[in-house]
Amino acid sequence: MSRLSGYVNRNMIVGGIILMLAGNFMFALNDAMGKWLVASFSVGQVVFVRSVGAFIILGPLIVRQGTHKLFHLGRIGLQVMRVIATALDTLLFYAAVVYLPLADVMSFYMAGPIYVALLSHIFLKEKVGWRRWLAIILGFCGVLVMLNPSSAALTIESLYALVGSITFAIAIVLSRVLRGTSDTALVTWQTIGVGVGGGLLAVGSWQHVPAIDYGAMLLLGVVSSVAHLMITRALKMAPASTLAPLHYTLLLWAVVFGILFFNDVPGPRILIGGGIVVLAGLFIFHRQNVQATVPPENVPKGVN
Hints:
- Pfam families: EamA (PF00892).
- It comes from Aquamicrobium segne.
- The chain crosses the membrane at residues 12-30, 36-59, 80-100, 106-124, 133-153, 159-178, 185-206, 212-231, 243-262, 268-285.
- This is DMT family transporter.
- InterPro entries: EamA_dom, EmrE-like.
- By secondary structure, the chain is mostly helical.
- The chain has one domain (2-298).
- It starts with a helix and ends in an 11-residue tail after the last helix.
- It has 13 helices and no strands.
């Protein structure tokens, strides 16, 4: 019986890994499609129609779980903060990819786990030892290499990507705090928030476009929703510590799609800074895994 249980558990983990990889691929595809669309249409219009398209997937899920769960939420203040953070994250991401290569923007977002570690220490009182503090500092150095903050090189587009990645991390921390809320409710309200933000930005810049372009924007929402659902299911099938490093495959796909579709080749500054950020993030994941699997009494004091 135990052998059968172990076999099933292994299959669940493998299934979770496959779903995580597929979900990351879908997110990267979503990002490439979004970059292609915002080259011709306003960010607000693309994001608004994208949010409408997301309900092609979310609609049946809402009906199945019942609409009452959408309106009976705890900690309303934090829920609103999370919706605002996810809306800013999405809008700033698309504003950045209008001007920057996909891999450049994604490299900034790869710093998300580093910001999460710092924010979790500040707001969730999670202990961070000297090893992870060094990784956090190293990660910030990588961000500075990518940002190139000299008066001649610093651009508003880079700041869009930087602030967007920080709001992305804030949304992750708030999702941890609100983990008792159903996945469908969280995704539904963040989709509504993004749609409202996009609608406000689209005022005065809305274009009448052919049906095929509206179809592409709606498809963007479908792809994004499917990616969210894949990753949510993966996290229920396999340990987060196993799946977390796979997050960095997003950067790989961003480089591939950038070269194939936009002829964008990452420069040395982005490659070096992105590499530093990835190494720092992987080390943080490793230390979190150690803390989660080793009994506290076996961990030397100050090692977190």
